[in-house]
Amino acid sequence: xxxxxxxxxxxxxxxxxxxxxxxxxxxxxxxxxxxxxxxxxxxxxxxxxxxxxxxxxxxxxxxxxxxxxxxxxxxxxxxxxxxxxxxxxxxxxxxxxxxxxxxxxxxxxxxxxxxxxxxxxxxxxxxxxxxxxxxxxxxxxxxxxxxxxxxxxxxxxxxxxxxxxxxxxxxxxxxxxxxxxxxxxxxxxxxxxxxxxxxxxxxxxxxxxxxxxxxxxxxx
Length: 220
Fold this sequence. Notes:
Elements lengths: L3 E7 L6 E8 H6 L3 H12 L9 E6 L3 E7 L6 H5 L9 H20 L2 E2 L8 E3 L5 E3 L6 E2 L16 H4 L7 H16 L11 H9 L16
Antiparallel strand pairs: 1-2, 2-4, 3-4, 5-8, 6-7
Helix pairs in contact: 4-6
């Protein structure tokens, strides 16, 4: 990323593998991200759920901050949805993945945490096939509303684009976009060559359509 790298490391005695996120202090200060990094660390420390990546511990030296994180080795949900031979997943798989993701979001929302960057690249598949939410860099405790423009364009809710203030509802919007992508194999609002202004207009106007013939009776 912008501020550092993630290394694959292992415990010297047990051999247990972990992900070590190393953040450059100078880069963090230069990009005015000190508050954001502290917020991410505090939020991750407060969460314990099988479908949200686990922060083991943190430490630092003169140059860097370090976050030792549970290793999830199954790859991104994005790579499951989009392969060389197809886009989208079977309805039963989509229901299972959606249930996992909803569980993780519910856990965060119960603690007044809005995730704000739900997308298939931020969901990893663990060794048992369950979804694990990772990268809480945009997550924030929101008691009322917040006004920061953040997230990934294809998954932004209208209220973020319109700067009306937003809360956990934006996570459910992105969740709906993700379900559509799993079932249909593409974004409901973006198509190849769409510029960002046109994309935002479609989102704000809620302009999307299901494929001819619908999605089948299995979707519920």
